[in-house]
Specification:
The complex is a heterotrimer of chains A (219), B (260) and C (215).
Chain A lengths: L3 H39 L5 H15 L3 H11 L9 H26 L3 H9 L4 H13 L4 H14 L11 H12 L3 H34 L1
Helix pairs in contact in A: 1-4, 1-8, 1-9, 2-4, 3-4, 4-6, 4-7, 5-6, 7-9, 8-9
Chain B lengths: L5 E10 L2 E11 L4 E5 L6 H8 L7 E6 L2 E2 L2 E4 L2 E4 L2 H8 L2 E4 L11 H11 L5 H14 L15 H13 L5 E5 L7 H17 L3 E5 L3 H7 L2 E6 L2 E6 L1 H6 L4 H14 L2
Parallel strand pairs in B: 3-10, 3-11, 8-9, 9-10
Antiparallel strand pairs in B: 1-2, 1-4, 4-5, 6-7, 11-12
Chain C lengths: L2 H37 L5 H16 L2 H11 L9 H26 L3 H9 L4 H31 L11 H11 L3 H31 L4
Helix pairs in contact in C: 1-2, 1-4, 1-7, 1-8, 2-4, 3-4, 4-6, 5-6, 6-8, 7-8
Classes of the chains: A mainly alpha (219), B alpha/beta (260), C mainly alpha (215).
Main location (chain A): membrane
GO cellular component, one term (chain A): ATP-binding cassette (ABC) transporter complex
InterPro entries (chain A): AA_ABC_transptr_permease_3TM (IPR010065), ArtM/GltK/GlnP/TcyL/YhdX-like (IPR043429), Ectoine_EhuD (IPR014341), MetI-like (IPR000515), MetI-like_sf (IPR035906)
């Protein structure tokens, strides 16, 4: 049965691993954000070959499991001379995997900006770069902030997969504790509660933000 | 004799197999106000959009202030213009759109300032002063800090005109600037355009269905039909003595709708 | 080992587990998703609360944690089950929660006029849902359900971590016994892609077939 004494005893140990979970989420998210934006822009270029290759890469990554991609980065890269720590490999896998999802989100945001905005960029003689940074992205990004926020939470919940490549985040920490004491009940329950306590309120916040944005952009 | 500010030479445009413009020659003189009229689908909008580089040329050349717009001269030959060259020539052209296309994420003042600062590299203080003066001129200074969503259509279009004007183009395109407006808001916009026209130095290419307005403002009217300029001349001549049956038909249809 | 031998060994041992796991947990997810999605629109506070708790609980935590909980923790309370049952249960429950949201939003997106027309025709609430609302909502759900199915399929790889012998598990075993790391994981990626890609395409075709001439 559930041993509260033991749960209280191991709680600090699990909590200390939360730092790894959260930093993996944040670094992975930054990577996914930047790479997602780049992919979205590349998939829209007028150079057909670049657009086709980009779309192909996105499709491949989206249609294969993150766990296998993590194994690939962690176990296969070293045979090409690229040995990565579990953290770096994990963040790289997480970031690349979700960049393909974010690129889709960015693309929808960009497509929603009226064609006239591109035309006016030309009429006012903006450079391509100025048109993107001053006109298109400032309009494309705010409406998709809630979707991007939800992906942040999704990525947070995916970090336990990084335990499979030996990163000691909270789930791995819980497993280690469980293996030592032969009791998985308390450590895994704590991990479940931690995930819920952090991600549920965050998702409520995002829902609120979404309602606010809906009001702002639809009226 | 002065050189034209814009010269179309044998300009054609295809969308796929569809020919929209058929070998058009056309000059616009500095400061000249030209109105383009004609049925929808006649090619007049495409004609103007080519000048703004919003559509690409199928064949022919366009020159602006003596420079090729879509081409560059290299070793005595005409080659496709680089984007750098395009931007350089494009400085001379401005455009006011049918649907305004204001930047929804910027205030009215920011809308007018934006291109001055980012494109012309005007110092922010100076750009702000120029923009406020211009907003004053179009009668919207008190709306400087408001977002476009809170403006009426007529006000939006006046801001769009101010935004285009502060860039000081030599040629300004007005693409049906009042067609998207409620009838009661058309007047305020036409008034501003007329004011600008009276100042004189900027050439204007005005696509419009407001025939009375075209008469009042334009030095010359060009009638488009089927991808060609079928007839052109002074407003009086065009309205009173149309030479071609097509123009006659077009004008009579107009009078009929107007008298409804 | 040759590439072909590796491929053969991966497919022979793991394919059936991956495919059947996908199949059974997808059915469970669909049933749970429809049940809880409709339950969340129920007028009964109790039903509404139970469905809501289920959905938020499973969406608010990680699939892998849920999998470990069901496989490692539940036995401590006397609920012992095979790895396969635990996997179907975990994946089905997890994706059921996401499907629930798909169902709910599709039903809510149906025009109010459809309800009003049903009332005007004197249908019962049940008739309205079964005959009018759900058939329309279902078509709207197809693209999202398709995406869910792909995500579910990919997530089956997680079961290798509770020693269920799926494709990924076989790859890990093979990797331990041979030194063909590059070949094994490249092939594994390709196998997943080749399985997922027709699924994506198939859903697109289904969507087109169902919406043809209707919207």
């Amino acid at each position: 049965m559930f041993d509260f004494q033991y749960a209280i005893e191991i709680f600090p140990t699990i909590l200390s691993a939360l730092r790894i979970t959260i930093s993996a989420t944040i670094v992975g998210f930054i990577l996914a954000f930047v790479l997602g934006l780049v992919l979205a822009m590349l998939s829209r270029t007028k150079v057909k070959t670049i657009a086709t290759i980009t779309n192909g890469v996105i499709k491949f990554i989206r249609n294969t499991p993150l766990l296998v991609q993590l194994y690939f980065i962690f176990y296969v890269f070293p045979s090409f001379g690229l040995t990565l720590s579990p953290f770096v490999a994990g963040v790289l896998g997480l970031g690349i995997h979700y960049s393909t999802y974010l690129s889709e989100v960015f693309r929808s945001g960009i497509d929603a900006v009226p064609v006239g905005q591109w035309e006016v960029g030309k009429a006012l003689n903006f450079t391509q770069k100025q048109t993107w940074t001053r006109i298109i992205l400032p309009q494309a990004v705010p409406p998709i902030v809630p979707v991007i926020g939800n992906y942040f939470i999704t990525m947070f919940k995916e970090t336990p997969l990084l335990s499979a490549i030996t990163l000691v985040e909270i789930l791995q920490q819980a497993k280690i504790l469980g293996a030592n004491s032969f009791s998985y009940v308390e450590p895994i329950t704590i991990v479940g509660i931690l995930f819920f306590v952090l991600s549920y309120p965050a998702s409520l916040l995002i829902k609120q933000l979404e309602n606010k944005l809906n009001k702002k952009y639809q009226v | 004799m002065t050189e034209p500010i814009v010269r179309y030479n044998q300009v054609s445009k295809y969308f796929g197999d569809l020919q929209v413009l058929n070998k058009i020659d056309f000059d616009i003189m500095p400061g000249e106000k030209v109105a383009l009229i004609g049925p929808s689908g006649s090619g007049k909008t495409t004609f103007a959009r080519l000048l703004m580089t919003l559509e690409s040329l199928s064949s022919g050349t366009i020159q602006v202030d003596g420079q090729y717009l879509w081409h560059e001269e290299k070793d005595g030959k005409l080659v496709k213009a680089s984007s750098k060259h395009l931007r350089e020539v494009r400085q001379n052209i401005g455009m006011v759109f049918q649907h305004f296309h204001l930047f929804p994420h910027m205030t009215v003042l920011e809308n007018v300032m934006e291109a001055q600062v980012t494109v012309k590299k005007t110092p922010e203080k100076e750009a702000e002063k120029i923009s406020k003066d211009m907003l004053d001129k179009v009668g919207l200074l008190e709306k400087a800090d408001v977002y476009p969503a809170q403006l009426s259509g007529g006000q939006k279009q006046r801001v769009a005109i101010a935004r285009a004007l502060v860039m000081k183009p030599k040629v300004m395109i007005f693409d049906e600037p009042t067609s998207a407006l409620d009838p009661e808001l058309v007047g305020e916009v036409l008034e501003i355009i007329k004011e600008i026209a009276d100042e004189g130095e900027m050439a204007m290419l005005l696509i419009t269905h407001e025939m009375d307005f075209a008469l009042e403002v334009a030095d010359r009217i060009a009638f488009f039909d089927g991808g060609k300029i079928v007839e052109q001349g002074s407003p009086e001549q065009m309205i009173n003595n149309p030479e071609t049956p097509r123009l006659n038909e077009f004008l009579s249809r107009f009078n009929a709708t107007n008298s409804l | 080992m040759s590439t072909l031998e590796i491929l053969g060994s991966l497919l022979k041992e793991g394919l059936l587990v991956t495919v059947s796991l996908t199949f059974f947990s997808a059915i469970l997810a669909l049933v749970l998703g429809f049940g809880s999605g409709l339950a969340r629109m129920s007028k009964s506070k109790i039903i509404w609360f139970i469905a809501g708790t289920y959905v938020e609980l499973f969406r608010g935590t990680s699939l892998l944690v849920q999998l470990f909980f069901i496989y490692f923790v539940l036995p401590m309370f006397g609920l012992r089950m095979s790895a396969m049952v635990a996997a179907v249960l975990a994946i089905g429950l997890n994706f059921g929660a996401y499907t629930s949201e798909v169902v709910r939003s599709a039903v809510q997106a149906i025009d109010v006029g459809q309800r009003e027309a049903s009332v005007a025709l004197n249908m019962t609430r049940q008739q309205m849902m079964r005959r009018i609302i759900i058939p329309q909502a279902f078509i709207r759900m197809i693209p999202n359900l398709g995406n869910q199915l792909i995500e579910l399929f990919k997530s089956t790889s997680l079961v290798s971590l509770i020693t269920l012998t799926d494709l990924t598990y076989q790859a890990n075993v093979l990797n331990g016994s041979t030194l063909e790391t590059t070949k094994i994981y490249t092939l594994l990626l390709l196998i997943y892609f080749v399985l997922a890609w027709p699924l994506t395409k198939g859903m697109n075709v289904l969507e087109r077939k169902l919406t043809e001439g209707r919207f």
